[in-house]
Amino acid sequence: MAHDDSSGKDLAATSSGLDGASTGTAVATTDAGHAEADGGLAVIATDTFANPGLPATRHRATDLDPKKARTAQRAVYTLFYISIAGSIFALAAYMAFPITDDLASVRLNSVFLGLGITLALMGIGLGAVHWAKSLMSDEEGEDIRHPVRGTEATRTAAVQIFDEANKESGFGRRTLIRNSLIGALVAFPLPAVILFRGLAPEYNNPAALLETTMWKTGTRLTLDPSGLPVKAADVTIGSAFHIIPEGLNDTPDRLEQKAKAAVLLMRVNVADLKISPGRETWNYDGIVAYSKICTHVGCPVALFEQQTHHLLCPCHQSTFDVNNECEVIFGPAKRALPQLPITVDSEGYLIAQSDFTEPVGPSFWERS
């Protein structure tokens, strides 16, 4: 039987055209020098172009006018001198405005010390940037890569490079800029040296400073910061209070004394307490008091987990078990929090039986 297969031929032709485009066989070259596929599927450029090279140098005003170059030079070393003045001002501010118990002294010290350090930093930074942008060589250069060899020729070339860099920067020729920069770099670290020196202990035996606090026999436990005394009846199970010794707010070195004597007061069930021999009378009906100063690096332990009876230091997550005499159960601390022996007076107020029986604060203070 006869039939028309024209549709089949069209389909074959279409398939062949697609195959040719996909394999790159059906490609026509145009007059413009491009190769392009049937149907405009791809265009491959065959043109080439010459290397345009580096653009022409646009000289700065300081390159063309010696007067403006001298003005820029004066600006640079003036900024370096400002940096030196800022460093000296920071040193003077540190000594002229010491930090005391008054918060105003903290503000004055921070403001003037910060102002001096800012001037010292900005003077060096702005001077260096202005020097580079206005006075250093602005000519484009081309470095040819070559194997690195420790030959005499290589060393000679290195010397020439350093000599050329010195000439381009003007470091050796512009003595005022060089000397003022050296002076600024020498003066800038001095405030940091003074600040770090202030952190050093004044005594050869820091542990001796932490062996005693304001707590003594009969000292009442008072709330921080109000200074109100605390009665045992006011401390309920699961509660926690931040405690300072009575009279601390009236002492001239209040902050130093508080840093050693701060205490956390809590109440738990007496049956839950694990008491070691010799400490049977250190708590009062489940009320216990422990140093607030972490034995790791001295951060304030301020978080009390009511359900687990754990104390948590927020700095490095050292965790102490209140039920077990604040032994360390997690974290980098290596020593339990010192316990303050407490009892009540005739009026029902909580009082200390004595000072802490061991140094408070970081354990490394005890090491020789």
Automatic annotation (TrEMBL):
Q: Which family does it belong to?
A: Belongs to the Rieske iron-sulfur protein family.
Sorted alphabetically, the keyword list is: 2Fe-2S, Cell membrane, Disulfide bond, Electron transport, Iron, Iron-sulfur, Membrane, Metal-binding, Oxidoreductase, Respiratory chain, Transmembrane, Transmembrane helix, Transport
Signal peptide as annotated in the record: none
> Which Pfam families does the record associate with it?
QcrA_N, Rieske
Q: What is its main location?
A: membrane
Its cellular-component GO annotations read: plasma membrane
- What are the start and end residues of every segment in region (Disordered)? 1-22
Residues covered by the Rieske domain: 281-351
Q: How does it sit in the membrane?
A: Multi-pass membrane protein
Cellular compartment(s): Cell membrane
Described function:
Iron-sulfur subunit of the cytochrome bc1 complex, an essential component of the respiratory electron transport chain required for ATP synthesis. The bc1 complex catalyzes the oxidation of menaquinol and the reduction of cytochrome c in the respiratory chain. The bc1 complex operates through a Q-cycle mechanism that couples electron transfer to generation of the proton gradient that drives ATP synthesis.
Protein known as: Cytochrome bc1 complex Rieske iron-sulfur subunit
Name the source's superkingdom: Bacteria
Q: Which organism is it from?
A: Subtercola lobariae
Show the stretches that span the lipid bilayer.
76-99, 111-132, 181-200
Q: In Gene Ontology terms, what is one molecular function of this protein?
A: oxidoreductase activity, acting on paired donors, with incorporation or reduction of molecular oxygen
Stretches of Polar residues bias are at: 13-22
